[in-house]
Amino acid sequence: MTTTFETQRTALADVVAIPVTPFAEDGTVDQDAHRALLRRLLDGGIRTLTPNGNTGEFYALTPQERQLVTELTIDEADGRAVILVGVGHDVPTAIASARHARERGARMVMVHQPVHPYVSQAGWVDYHRAIAEAVPELGVVPYIRNAQLLGARLAELADSCPNVIGVKYAVPDAARFAAFARDAGLDRFVWVAGLAEPYAPSYFSAGATGFTSGLVNVAPSVSLNMIEALRSGDYPAAMKVWEQIRRFEELRAANGSANNVTVVKEALASLGLCRREVRPPSRELPEAERAEVASIAAGWSI
């Protein structure tokens, strides 16, 4: 029987939440806080969760911690959400993580952009093919940050791996996204705007049907308001949400997104939901900027 992945495809056409990974005072993963934050997302109406995404500090976690985060998320969701587990690093590590996700009950994996100074386009296909072929039962979602990658390469990958069902596209260029999606096959994949709410309206206008979010950790209703507006084609309403979150996202994007996770954790800390600590190479916000983040978070209907 051919797997159609309809449940997974539906889950991608939504707010794809990237939960933070809270740390305890001793620097370990704070499991109780993590569960509480996940429950808050679920109770807020979020139905797609990505443990081990970049907002979860994927590259700062040990292999054991990445497994723990996967297990905590799947256990806490308990069927209330579809789980899209972030995997990456070298091919054997990515495959091991994908198989662990499958064994624990995840339905999909997101493959992080290969971290290597020399990435050929054919090699990009080989990397993702190796992972996708190792877990044919799972939906596979490449995370694309490489502006040079051709849409034809994604089509080539999917020709041999039908479980490649969606794309998290995170190149900050809506025109490039529109061309890439059409070259790869606009109707063949679920297109997720991988640069979150700031790019969601422009990417939806070009064919995206879902977007990722780190802001959703702070205010699930804000992210849901945006996707509801975009689904109905009400771009003026979507842009009102865009205006509401603009400054918060500008703070995250400043200095090459140096404070992408830091700002989200600072907002959560201001609400008493987790500690503000992040791991190097990220760093906590200076005192002077904390008040602005707290003021923004307090002003949202949460």
Beta percentage is 5-15%
- Please state the average pLDDT score: 96
Order of helices and strands: HEHEHEHEHEHEHEHEHHHH
Alpha-carbon distance between the termini?
44 Å
Quaternary: single chain
What's the gyration radius in Å?
A: 18 Å
Helix/strand class: alpha/beta
Which sheet architecture does the biggest sheet show? Answer: 8 strands, parallel
Counted by DSSP, the helix tally is: 12
According to DSSP, the number of beta strands is 8
Describe the protein in words.
Helix 7 (174-184) links the parallel strand 6 and strand 7. The chain has helices at residues 6-12, 31-43, 63-77, 91-104, 121-134, 151-160, 174-184, 200-205, 220-231, 235-257, 260-270, 287-299; strands at residues 15-17, 48-49, 82-87, 108-111, 139-144, 166-169, 190-193, 210-213. With 302 residues, the protein is α/β, with parallel strands linked by helices. It has twelve helices and eight strands. Strands 1-8-7-6-5-4-3-2 form an eight-stranded parallel beta sheet, sandwiched between helices.
List the helices and strands and how they pair.
Elements: H1 6-12, E1 15-17, H2 31-43, E2 48-49, H3 63-77, E3 82-87, H4 91-104, E4 108-111, H5 121-134, E5 139-144, H6 151-160, E6 166-169, H7 174-184, E7 190-193, H8 200-205, E8 210-213, H9 220-231, H10 235-257, H11 260-270, H12 287-299
Parallel strand pairs: 1-8, 2-3, 3-4, 4-5, 5-6, 6-7, 7-8
Helix pairs in contact: 2-3, 3-4, 4-5, 5-6, 6-7, 9-10, 10-11, 11-12
